[in-house]
Write a structure and sequence with these properties.
Blueprint (H helix, E strand, L loop, with lengths): L7 E5 L3 H12 L3 E5 L8 H4 L6 H15 L4 E4 L3 E2 L2 E2 L1 H6 L5 E4 L5 E2 L15 E3 H10 L17 E4 L2 H21 L6 H6 L1 H8 L12 E4 L16 H22 L2 E4 L1 E9 L4 E13 L2 E13 L3 E3 L3 E2 L8 E2 L2 E2 L1 E2 L5 E2 L5 E3 L2 H4 L27 H27 L6 H18 L5 H8 L4 H9 L1
Parallel strand pairs: 1-2, 1-6, 2-3, 4-5, 6-21, 8-15, 9-10, 9-15, 10-11
Antiparallel strand pairs: 7-16, 12-13, 13-14, 17-18, 19-20
Helix pairs in contact: 1-3, 1-11, 5-6
Length: about 450
């Protein structure tokens, strides 16, 4: 039911956490405006979840659509906080009852090698822009950054996101090699099992002239977050580690990449004449009492034409927003209120410092966020189930914030009118006409599965 609203809330970021916060606030009769940095508010559902998850993507994006279509919610696309929209101006001068930051984690955690970033696009790629390219390069009007993936690449990581990068590399290089032999195999088929496809066609990687990529991890395969790791007894721990090893072995067989455990990057190998990264120097490690320990005196150089860093994501720093380490400076015991601001709160990855979609509605220690990381090759229903669990948590967090807002003095009609005028100006500047569903229909990217379906017809 539409309410005239005596409180007005601004939310930056309309994806998983932001849309849930908007819906909860709007359902209580608050006026809400959602600002998103992109044309569409889907965040890593659209740009970070590899496009082979097409059914999950569509389902989750429709849930966001439903929440942002609430009559008490307004939307402003292409609104970047800190670039065109001043944070302190929004927080202190617009007059909002509250400002909520659900801006996510889009910045790649730096690879811990001195001077390595000098070789970005010179033999080094980072995960986030690479996955964005992979998800969109098939679109006829794609004009973003281009990536060239090659055989024998090196991935440095260890979490589920690094396994996505491995799959992208293997799918792209195998698909290209098969095409050169006049075999047109789509991405969705290769996603199910590269080894099965090659067996059916009578090829090995060597037959295709490929070596496959290599994943480097500073821990062991039994430390990969692929299944629950109980701490009750030594026997249970060993069983869980055995399960992790089996899952990893199956993944290796399915996607035909290589795995180098217990190596930590220490330095770069550079071709000085070509100003190109050629490889990485590694320190051998071992695990003692659950911790990574260097094996003194054991180093090795691994050469590769391409290095991809996949060691995690961090929130982008926003001018005017205080930070504590790699995340926003918040008081988690006080509804994640931003330090120094009475009416500003943070949600999701801006608090947790995690960039994974499965954690986007979860606050650190509040629930067992590691559960999703305990599985490899999660099914669509597994992702969906944990997103729903997370919704319950974010609903609780937003409810606490809403209770605080409700106790505040009502905004005056003049203040609400002034806020609305500023919102309308921003909407006009972006070409947004106020019809959220129509905006989505007009701007939704062309899907690869639709292209494949058309080509069959």
């Amino acid at each position: 039911m539409v309410h005239s609203g005596h409180h007005f809330v601004a939310i930056f970021g309309g994806a998983v956490a932001g849309s849930e916060a908007a819906y909860q606030m709007a359902s209580r009769g608050f006026r809400v405006v959602v600002f998103d940095q992109n044309v569409l508010p889907y965040g890593k559902i659209e740009d970070g979840l590899p496009k082979w998850h097409e059914k999950l993507r569509d389902k989750e994006e429709e849930k966001i659509n439903e929440k942002l279509s609430h009559p008490n919610v307004q939307f402003v696309p292409n609104a970047v906080l800190g670039n065109g929209i001043d944070f302190k101006d929004i927080a202190n001068n617009w007059g909002f009852s509250a400002v909520m930051l659900a801006t996510g984690a889009w910045k790649d955690r730096p690879l811990p090698v001195d001077g390595i970033d000098d070789y970005i696009d010179k033999g080094l790629y980072y995960q986030n822009p690479l996955v964005y390219w992979f998800n969109h390069y098939h679109e006829p009007n794609y004009q973003g950054q281009q990536f060239e993936l090659v055989d024998d690449a090196m991935v440095i990581g260890g979490g589920l996101a690094s396994l996505d990068i491995v799959k992208i590399l293997m799918i792209e290089t195998v698909q290209k090699a098969l095409k050169e032999k006049d075999h047109q195999v789509d991405m969705f088929t290769l996603d199910r099992s590269i080894s099965k496809v090659l067996n059916e066609l009578g090829y090995s990687l060597e037959d295709l002239g490929l070596k496959g990529c290599t994943l480097f991890y500073r821990r062991r395969d039994i430390d990969m977050p692929l299944s629950p790791l109980p701490s009750e007894t030594e026997e249970q721990l060993k069983k869980a580690q055995a399960v992790r090893k089996k899952i990893m072995d199956n993944f290796l067989k399915k996607y035909l990449f290589r795995f180098e455990p217990c190596w930590a990057p220490t330095d770069k190998i550079v071709h000085q004449d070509q100003d190109q990264l050629q490889g990485i120097k590694f320190q051998k490690t071992k695990i003692e009492n659950g911790k990574v320990v260097n094996v003194q005196g054991v180093h090795k150089e691994f050469m590769s034409p391409l290095v991809i860093s996949s060691i995690g994501s961090l929130p982008e720093k926003i001018p005017g927003v205080p930070n504590k380490g790699s995340t926003f400076a918040v008081n988690e015991e006080d509804c994640c209120r931003l330090e120094g601001f009475e009416n500003v709160f943070a949600l999701g990855n801006a608090v947790t410092g995690r960039g994974n979609i499965k954690e986007s509605m979860v606050h650190g220690k509040k629930i067992a966020i590691e559960v999703m990381d305990h599985h490899l090759n999660w099914r669509e229903e597994d992702y969906e189930r944990w997103l729903r669990v997370s919704e319950t948590q974010i609903e609780h967090e937003v409810s606490n914030i809403a209770n605080q807002i409700a106790r505040k003095q009502f905004l005056s009609p003049e203040t609400i009118k002034g806020i609305q005028e500023k919102i309308s100006k921003l909407q006009i500047a972006t070409g947004y006409n106020g019809d959220f569903r129509q905006w989505v229909a007009d701007n939704l990217p062309e899907r690869l599965e639709d292209q494949l379906h058309k080509s069959i017809e």
